[in-house]
Amino acid sequence: MKYYLLETAPWETFYSAAAETTETIVNEFVSAYADYIKAEKFDKTKHQPAKHMSGVKNDENIYILYRMTGKPELWQIGSKVSDITGYIIPGLFHVRKIGAFVSDDVKAKSEVTQA
Fold first, then answer.
1. DSSP 111
2. In this structure, are residues 99 and 4 in contact, taking their beta carbons and an 8 Å threshold?
């Protein structure tokens, strides 16, 4: 399977009191939502973008999350969330879905639909 990146990927917030690392945040996220069953670290050297699609340049905080259906999605873990005054809100993090996977036989960008 190859992956594609979404055209737009707005940040969401996720609260995790136990979070110390991005891996902890991802595991807490998977546990919090019944739609997801497991997560693994994304490695850009092992996964290729679909044809005519841009690829991931920095895979540092990117994970593959698997839905109950087995369908994999790409998620990015961002920084801690701060309020308007710059105060960092303990345990609150940015997360966003940035992509999904498609079968290897997809040949054109027009064949990919936004998830």
1. G
2. yes
